[in-house]
Amino acid sequence: MIETAPRFNRASSKEFSQTLRKRVNAYFEENNIKRTGDYRVAIKALAMFSLYFIPYIFQVTMNLGTVPYLICSVLMGIGVSGIGLGIMHDANHGSLSDKKWVNNLFAYSLNIIGGNALSWKIQHNVLHHSFTNVHGMDEDLEAGNIMRFTPSEPWKKRHRGQHIYSWVLYSLMTFSWVLLKDFKRITKYSKVGLVQAQGVSYFNAILTIAVSKIIYIGYTLVLPLALGYPVWLVLTGFVIMHILGGLMLAMIFQPAHIMENHDFINSDAGVIDQSYESHQLNTTSNFAPTNKLLTWYCGGLNYQVEHHIFPSVSHVHYPAISKIVKATAEEFNLPYRSVPSWGEALKIHQRTMKKLSQPEWSLA
Questions:
Q1: Distance CA 7, CA 276 (A)
Q2: What average pLDDT score do residues 69-98 get?
Q3: What is the pTM of this model?
Q4: Which one of 16, 50, 133, 348 counts the least CB within 10 Å of its CB?
Q5: In 10 A of CB 257, how many CB atoms?
Q6: What is residue 179's predicted lDDT score, i.e. its pLDDT?
Q7: Residue 186: exposed, middle, or buried by beta-carbon count in 10 A (0-12, 13-18, 19+)?
Q8: 349, 258 in Cβ contact below 8 A?
Q9: Which residues contact 124 (CB under 8 A, 6 or more apart)?
Q10: Residue 346 near residue 255, CB atoms below 8 Å
Q11: How many percent of the chain have pLDDT more than 70?
Q12: Counting beta carbons within 10 angstroms of the beta carbon of residue 328, is it exposed (0 to 12), middle (13 to 18) or buried (19 or more)?
């Protein structure tokens, strides 16, 4: 995997990269502010964990009827994606706090909601961020041959209806975390040395996944059943929670990269004739930058351009530095993609999925 990774041409757009980083660094220095999160992140963390755990506490401490129980599951689903997008994500990038132990602690919030922090860090930080939209390297482009996210992927007849069934599969995203995906990923990553590169042994990684999954299944399924709730109600609530969480995550991440006007690159390219920063401009898009509620809820991930170029910067700073990134990109005649609304971004993604469902769009 990594041994065949393409390299970026650092000489390409070198002046742009240096100018952009110099200007963003100056922004933080001149305003005397840290690049990490502040009190706004603390407030959000309290809100998101409350949105997830308070409904759960109601479920297990009160004898709720069917409708109240399912309403709590809906709120927990919103909380799942809120924790993932606004808290866990920054923590795993080391941008939540300037204290390493705080970042490490909140990174494990993913384990609490059914995922695994180490698996996510390798898949997202190491592979997706380093090789955005590079087929064979960016695992966000992989869908087990069920869906086709890049024209580099060989077309199959089963892809014809993907623009219709993709949303059903998106809703199952977090189920895969809870079940087998983390085990499979860690095993695969260990074989190429990516687990060990994080300073973790394969045994400890698998043990952590197994223990955290047991605890998660215990408090989300076993405990409510032990308290006397019907099996159908507990399972229905669990499914609702994960469907909402999966859909929300997909609706944020997919329109950031799987878009018709973005670059898609084969991993056998050897050298990508762009600097890392210009590559991110060509493979990433912002959306709904004026939607303050969405920006707050999704952890600023509607500012994906800024996030990909400056992942160690907390999302609370993205709206401010986006002005610098946009102005600098335009100055150097580089693209700066930003879709005005969330709805429009989802339409473009849907249109892209339909184009990819046909064999005509191929890089092969």
A1: 9
A2: 95
A3: 0.92
A4: 50
A5: 24
A6: 82
A7: buried
A8: yes
A9: 92
A10: yes
A11: 98
A12: buried
Contacts by residues 98-101 (CB-CB < 8 Å, ≥ 24 positions apart): 98/34, 98/36
Q: Quick one: average pLDDT of 35-41? A: 94
| Structure-block tokens of residue 342 | 């969330």
Q: pLDDT tens digits for 302-314? A: 999 999 999 999 9
| Helices 14-30, 276-283: inter-axial angle, 10-degree rounding | 90
Instruction: Check: CB of residue 213 under 8 Å from CB of residue 145.
Output: no
Q: What is the mean pLDDT of the chain?
A: 92
Rounded to 5°, the CA angle 244-260-24 comes to: 80
- C-beta neighbour count of 212 within 10 angstroms: 20
